[in-house]
Amino acid sequence: MTENEEHEPKKLSPLRAAQAVFWSFFGVRRSKDHATDFAQLTLVQIVVSGIIGGILFVLTLLMLVRYVLR
Questions:
Q1: Would you give per-residue pLDDT tens digits along the chain (70 residues)?
Q2: Which H or E run includes 18?
Q3: Model pTM score
Q4: 40, exposed or middle or buried, with CB in 10 Å at 0-12, 13-18, 19+?
Q5: Which residues contact 15 (CB under 8 A, 6 or more apart)?
Q6: Residues of the domain holding 49
Q7: Three-state DSSP class for 60?
Q8: Dihedrals φ, ψ of 30, to 5°?
């Protein structure tokens, strides 16, 4: 392992990135978890997880409204 690899932050898995964004939607984050996620998440992971999470949230609301109005 080279010196650069030792200092390079480890990226989170896609599932862990989605989980971090999910909890951030609700504003429920422990400061320790937030600091860890902030150090390991990349901008691309945040944006992609946020877009997917937003789409799923809107689709869930639409399905719920459609179910209630039937």
A1: 555 555 566 777 888 888 888 887 777 777 787 788 778 888 898 889 889 989 999 999 999 999 999 8
A2: helix 14-26
A3: 0.69
A4: middle
A5: none
A6: 3-69
A7: helix
A8: -75, 145
